[in-house]
Amino acid sequence: MANLNDHMGKPIVAVTGIGVVTSLGVGKADNWAALTAGKSGIHPITRFPVDHLNTRISGMVDFLPSSSKGASLLTYDLAEIAAQEAVAEAGLKSGDFGGPLFLASPPVELDWSERFSLYNSDKHDIGAERLLRVARGLKELDVFETTQFGSIADRLADRFGTRGLPITLSTACASGATSIQLGVEAIRRGECDRALSIGADGSATAEALIRFSLLSALSTHNDIPEKASKPFSKDRDGFVLAEGSGALVLESLEAALTRGATILGILRGCGEKADDFHRTRSKPDGSPAIAAVRAALADAGLGEDEIDYVNAHGTSTPENDKMEHLSLSTVFGERIGSMPISSNKSMIGHTLSAAGAVEAAFSLMTMRESVIPPTINYDNPDPAIVLDVVPNQKRNAEVGTVLSNSFGFGGQNTCLVMAREPV
């Protein structure tokens, strides 16, 4: 009989369902096949004009009916599809989930189609007065609802029958991992036996592209899109904006075993530390990231020598990759040059609010399938970053524990430690 409590006497949290959507496709099977084959989902942007833009590529999800209908609708659909896969795999009823919902999603912003619905061509109207008059005349609530940060989670809660007030959060690039952390903590506190954690982001809009470009954060390698994202390489020049979703069904191990669920993995530990150095840049000494990694290891009850693989944040920006190497080398010491550390973002791009959840899903699959996905486009190693990035080709390996890193703009750092088996 497996021990049902962790080293701190709290309930062990198991994963019983996983769902994924990225630019590589819908569902775990298609994503895993493409990921382990080293296939890239990065492609030219066709959703909006890119003339005169420095970056003209992305990892947008362009194959769903809602892909051209605005960020809010697409984010909802991405979340629903991933959650449906996860809930079905867990063997639960999609209309009666019976636990809380934690959703990571992008900040709310009116899509252009909604802005046009508030537009009136009478040139004599003053802007604010025109907006109010037209808004009062609208006969539906669609535009209003899409301006509410919690609207997507509210719809998901109705769709899946979750309990309590659904939580919506946005902690930049750490959001998806934070949604999982909140689910883990709720189960550990005894507030519920199961939780649905989702990270979803369909906000690769023209505005987002321009804003990140102004920060010099995006790659401008447009000629060969699939080669643009190159984490830890010497010639890396920025991340690739992308969309996607990841969903996990989390349960106490006791509740999962009692109902005969298949255990897909264990959430051993969560670490979270804030970085108040800059709005976008990480602290140069990497101390908040170091502290987040160490907090996750401590929460998991594991030492530095007990992690088999690191699913890196690995954005492909010059500064972030350098900082992540510094933080990992500080924590893991001499092991850093030989332990496998790869980046899914080399193939799917940076899915922003969804990234932590998507990468947690891939980390769990890495352990279950005994295959480590590669870091593709690693053709020009950076001599200042000496890592085993599993270059260009997958690697068969027994992986019992994974550290998955998420370091966000604005200073949010969240790290997850996952295991293949219970303690």
Automatic annotation (TrEMBL):
<dbReference type="InterPro" id="IPR016039">
    <property type="entry name" value="Thiolase-like"/>
</dbReference>
<protein>
    <submittedName>
        <fullName>Beta-ketoacyl-ACP synthase II</fullName>
    </submittedName>
</protein>
<dbReference type="InterPro" id="IPR018201">
    <property type="entry name" value="Ketoacyl_synth_AS"/>
</dbReference>
<dbReference type="GO" id="GO:0005829">
    <property type="term" value="C:cytosol"/>
</dbReference>
<dbReference type="InterPro" id="IPR020841">
    <property type="entry name" value="PKS_Beta-ketoAc_synthase_dom"/>
</dbReference>
<dbReference type="Pfam" id="PF02801">
    <property type="entry name" value="Ketoacyl-synt_C"/>
</dbReference>
<dbReference type="GO" id="GO:0006633">
    <property type="term" value="P:fatty acid biosynthetic process"/>
</dbReference>
<comment type="similarity">
    <text>Belongs to the thiolase-like superfamily. Beta-ketoacyl-ACP synthases family.</text>
</comment>
<dbReference type="InterPro" id="IPR014031">
    <property type="entry name" value="Ketoacyl_synth_C"/>
</dbReference>
<dbReference type="GO" id="GO:0004315">
    <property type="term" value="F:3-oxoacyl-[acyl-carrier-protein] synthase activity"/>
</dbReference>
<dbReference type="InterPro" id="IPR000794">
    <property type="entry name" value="Beta-ketoacyl_synthase"/>
</dbReference>
<dbReference type="Pfam" id="PF00109">
    <property type="entry name" value="ketoacyl-synt"/>
</dbReference>
<dbReference type="InterPro" id="IPR014030">
    <property type="entry name" value="Ketoacyl_synth_N"/>
</dbReference>
<comment type="pathway">
    <text>Lipid metabolism; fatty acid biosynthesis.</text>
</comment>
<feature type="domain" description="Ketosynthase family 3 (KS3)">
    <location>
        <begin position="10"/>
        <end position="420"/>
    </location>
</feature>
<keyword id="KW-0808">Transferase</keyword>
